[in-house]
From TrEMBL:
Reactions listed under catalytic activity: D-fructose 6-phosphate + L-glutamine = D-glucosamine 6-phosphate + L-glutamate
Name this protein carries in UniProt: Glutamine--fructose-6-phosphate aminotransferase [isomerizing]
NCBIfam families noted in UniProt: glmS (TIGR01135), PRK00331.1 (NF001484)
GO cellular component, one term: cytosol
Organism: Novipirellula galeiformis
Localization per Swiss-Prot or TrEMBL: Cytoplasm
Highest taxon, organism lineage: Bacteria
């Protein structure tokens, strides 16, 4: 899940490359590099670590050229070293290439190329593609009067031998002002400018350079020169592509005064929840409406089971969705890890809807699980935040979150927006079954209160920071909740793990007695999610069990709760909301707790180690 960029035009390529890589850095930050064509050769600059290090290396006067490629890496093959940093060269340097994805048959191809005398300088699978293109070019005859065609044929020949996923941008030392981009399985977009063209792993580098975008589909290959571009499909030849309007403004991609994107995105949640609900609550019929589900009411009534699938935080919102849809619509729901669903091959009955939940829309496991269930004839839908993303393209329909760009690697506003959309889907399917008009009206009213409830919850930030101060050196933290708040506990634990590197586990509170309570000692804090509700007394008992064994207790509770006050060491107040909406409010202090602990431990909150924002490899 690297980030790649490319530029061909009349402007200095370096500005777009470095600016674009900064925007894509959340996709991987193990190493970076650019290649800029100038004076009949490519100037290659690579560095380990962040784009800042690369910009430093480029210095005050970077190479000047109107053609270039760039890459920021999330290591899959070979450690984070200069040798393994992209761009990679093919042959004796006539091919320059950047790659996002994983080539599964790279070792076989590499052995074959070594036999043919190619010399490898890196441990990466990507360098294999560069040499493969060089080899293919050697065997591709000139086409008189069509110099571009030879290079196109050579690339097509090379990529036809690849097994795995790729988003590629390729340039040629001996054929300047020309670039080829190709995709299968990894995301790739083109930016259409005036006399200049851009390639990027997603739309963010294009913001402020052009608002005309082409989302490349699988097996498509693009040829770009300053004069224009064309797109071909592996099997269908030349294809007409849809140039879309990019609906993003540059302010969304900035921190707007917040110290970190994660904190900004936590504070954006009242607005992102409003966006998720905008135009979707139908007071007149006391239900929810979705423009992109592509389902008739009859088809929706026929649904007998729903599968929710995703990864990480999106899997957690799926768990919340299970409680919501079963409660509001009485439809059986199962929640599947996408990486397991793909290979577990479960029996799926007819009239089952499969929802892929994803912020980025590019997660390879979720894409593969949707494709597999679709191949078996099931209707697939996406709950997704990125317009035009691969999963949005692959699904039969879906619901966009409209949460705006989420740049912090730790997902926050996407989780609450996913849960909000799942609540509205519960209302939609429920009102097509037994849910009464009155109950529907009430649910709409309760949903409309959410942004204010979240705004109120954000008021606990200072208090959470004090609690974080107290527990910043814990080595293990337990998160505990019941019913709707069990997935909230899992999500709280994941946030702490991924940005502070503290070991954390989430459990249904009652599960503690069956083993995890053995972890409790005075160094191991337990975070209990205990708002008033059907399981309040049960959670209270679980909390006292931990207290009885000397474990520090942090409680998320409603105001004026002397019982909790009496037992817990620290109480963080959350407003009282209906149980089915509690995860959307109660997760906010847990996001802030992880944020402040990570900050106090000097961790890089927005770009935690070993992670990337969208996981485009299996
Ligand atoms: C969550 O904070 C992580 N970034 C990660 O678990 C993420 O939720 C997962 O990779 C799924 O990503 P998606 O929602 O973009 O598909």
């Amino acid at each position: 899940m690297c980030g790649i960029v490319g530029y061909v035009g009349s402007d200095n390529a370096c500005d777009f490359l470095i600016g674009g890589l900064r925007r894509l850095e959340y996709r991987g930050y193990d190493s970076a590099g650019v290649a800029i064509y100038g004076g009949s050769t490519f100037h290659i600059t690579r560095s380990v670590g962040r784009i800042d290090a690369l910009a430093m290396q480029l210095g005050a006067v970077p190479p000047n050229g109107t053609l270039g490629l760039g890459h920021t890496r999330w290591a899959t093959h070979g450690p984070a070293t200069i040798e393994n940093a992209h761009p990679h060269l093919g042959g004796d340097g006539e091919i320059v290439l950047v790659h996002n994805g994983v080539i599964e048959n790279f070792q076989t191809l590499k052995d074959e190329l070594i036999q043919k005398g190619y010399h490898f300088v890196s441990a990466t699978d990507s360098e294999v593609i560069a040499h493969l293109v060089a080899e293919s070019l050697k065997n591709t005859p000139e086409t008189v009067g069509q110099p571009n065609l030879r290079y196109l044929n050579a690339v097509q020949g090379a990529i036809s031998r690849l097994r795995g996923t790729y988003g590629l941008a390729i340039a040629f030392r001996d054929h300047p002002n020309f670039m080829i981009a190709a995709r299968f399985g990894s995301p790739l977009v083109l930016g259409v400018g005036k006399g200049e063209y851009f390639v990027a792993s997603d739309a963010s580098p294009l913001v402020g350079r052009t608002d005309r975008i082409v989302y490349l589909a699988d097996h498509q290959i693009a040829v770009l020169t300053p004069e224009g571009f064309s797109v071909l499909h592996r099997d269908q030849g030349k294809v007409r592509v849809n140039i879309r309007q990019l609906e993003t403004d540059s302010s969304e991609a900035t921190r707007e005064g917040f110290e970190h994107y994660m904190l900004k995105e936590i504070y954006e949640q009242p607005e992102s929840i409003r966006n998720a609900m905008r135009g979707r609550l139908d007071e007149e019929n006391a239900t929810a409406v979705f423009g992109g589900l592509n389902l008739t009411p009859q088809q929706s009534r026929m649904v007998e089971r729903i599968i929710l699938t995703g990864c990480g935080t999106s899997w957690h919102s799926g768990l919340v969705g299970e409680y919501l849809i079963e409660d509001l619509a009485r439809i059986p729901v199962s929640v599947e890890y996408a990486s397991e669903l793909r290979y577990r091959n479960p029996p799926i009955e007819n009239n089952t809807l499969v929802f892929g939940i994803t912020q980025s829309g590019e997660t390879a496991d979720t894409l593969a699980a949707l494709r597999e269930t679709k191949r078996k004839g099931h209707r697939t839908l996406a709950i997704c935040n990125v317009v035009g993303s691969s999963i949005a393209q692959a699904a039969d329909g879906g619901v966009y979150l409209y949460a705006g760009p989420e740049i912090g690697v730790a997902s926050t506003k996407a989780f609450t927006s996913q849960c909000c959309v799942l609540a509205m889907l519960g209302l939609y399917f429920g009102r097509l079954r037994h849910l009464s008009f009155e109950r529907g009206k009430q649910i709409i009213e309760e949903l409309r209160q959410l942004p204010n409830a979240i705004q109120q919850t954000l008021g606990c930030n200072e208090q959470v920071r004090d609690v974080a101060q107290k527990y910043q050196n814990a080595s293990t933290v337990l998160y505990l909740g019941r019913q709707f708040n069990f997935p909230t506990a899992l999500e709280g634990a994941l946030k702490l793990k991924e940005i502070s590197y503290i070991h954390a586990e989430g459990y249904p509170a009652a599960e503690m007695k069956h083993g995890p309570i053995a972890l409790v000692d005075k160094e191991t804090p337990s975070v209990f999610i205990i708002p008033r509700g059907t399981t309040y007394t049960k959670v209270m008992a679980n909390m006292e069990e931990v207290k009885a064994r000397g474990g520090p207790v942090i409680a998320l509770a409603n105001e004026d709760d002397p019982q909790v006050q009496a037992v817990a060491d620290d109480v963080i107040h959350v407003p009282q909301v209906p149980e089915f909406l509690q995860p959307i409010v109660n997760v906010v202090p847990l996001q802030l707790l992880a944020y402040h602990i990570a900050l106090l431990r000097g961790c890089d909150v927005d770009k935690p180690r070993n992670l990337a924002k969208s996981v485009t490899v299996e």
